[in-house]
Sequence to fold (336 residues):
Amino acid sequence: MVLRSEKEIMEKWREGVNKPLVSICCISFNHEAFLEKALDSFLIQETNFPFEILVHDDASTDRSADIIREYEAKYPNLIKPIYQTENQYSQNIEPMSAYNYSRAKGKYIAVCEGDDYWTGTDKLQLQADFLEANDDYSICYHNSTVVDENDTLISTMKHPCPTDYSKDEMLLGEMFILTNTILFKTFTPDELEDFRNQFREAFNGDMALMHHLGFLGKCKYMENIDYAAYRVHSGGIWSAINEVKKIIHLSKSKRLMQENLSSRPDLIKKMDQSIASDFAVSLSRILLSLDFKGYKRLISIIREDERLSFKQIFLEHLKYMTKRVFARMPFFRKNK
Fold:
């Protein structure tokens, strides 16, 4: 790919480089094989406003830092890196909020990790235009394909039901959005401090982010933007976790969100129902994978949690399993 020079990228900007409208936030750890594609996808963006590219390398042991330095040398006014000498994630520090959100100068933030990438050249322009014109929205997003480590297409549509989301749906975490498709309102310093304090122990930081943005406005799905590419590979953190650990992390994150809803008893009740439904689905996935040890362990976890109704979860689990079993039968597939 032949990239434009820094001067060519900036020539249509209405403001100077020191007043970015959008801060692109990227975190990288051992993304040597993918990082150039991510950085290139930022640099192809065509905008009439300035943007900055904030890259945080978390003490990679491969050539990731060297690659970032090469791009920094070519685009010194755009690419603003942090090179860690000690891995921050292993010290329970979430790099995106700690080192990128905290230094973002833009009115809006776009997120793309070092193993994902964008495809369209007008992504940032279209999203920023929408948020500038619609103050009642705090975030907008678009669709994404799913690719593997070799860029082989896995899925042409990640979002099962592309839609707008209300504030309540965001507060409950009842949304499915990939972070490499979003543009959202930047935190104020106080908001960022509150966010980091409240969700320091939340493994599902993306869900916590959507919850926070639900207090600030609605969410818009934009269908006129080229799909981004979300990468699934063996080095991914979430994909490496087993189903039992996933539901433990998910329920903990939702309980932290629930603590923010003291003024909304209706949403607190819905959150309890959502957590119960999550456990029912996880039970079914574990059973379908024939992980009987994990199934037994999850049953034990549900029984020990006084806030969970074992009867409710088990009945929902049976309904889910019944649907899945029937769906696999040839007769029902033919007559569906």
Observations:
- The longest strand covers residues 22-28.
- The mean pLDDT is 90.
- The radius of gyration is 21 Å.
- The CA atoms of residues 6 and 75 lie 6 Å apart.
